[in-house]
Amino acid sequence: MSRQARKVVVRKPVDLPWTPFEVVEISPQEAAMLTEPVAVVLRNSRYQVIVRDRESPWGTITHLSIRRLDRQPMHDWRVMQRIKNEVLGEEREGVELFPAESRLVDTSNQYHLWVLPAGMHFPFGYNERLVTESPVNGAQQRMFDQKPADLASRETVTQRLADLGKEHA
Known about the structure:
The chain is of the alpha+beta class and 169 residues long. It has helices spanning 28-33, 77-88, 154-167, and strands at 22-23, 40-43, 47-56, 59-68, 94-95, 111-115.
């Protein structure tokens, strides 16, 4: 009787179903690697987020330090938006900073969002929401895992973009 070889499938964290973030205790080894105090450490099935508050001229800014659990590179705008929304709320605004080379810190596959205090908005960016899955004017867009209630059709996006062009002409 022959045995069939079993294929072992190793699932990457990004292949796992998304779970809610939970507060976790970090190991002494992880704590020893941190250079600053931590407010809280959160983990879900895919990501770890270290949350720190920092004082700034604009008030208390929240710093989210984000990494995949397998420590591999990642960069997906929707993932970063979802993490910000789940950790701090949908109406908080944050940025990912691409600093001057003289201020660059690039030591691991760690990503950083700097989030303004609640109620504050950056003096740049769009003033209204517009989301779609439809390809418009040759652009490509992927499907949403969870479709937003206000998902715009191709026709709506085309018209809105035309209106924006007229406003800025």
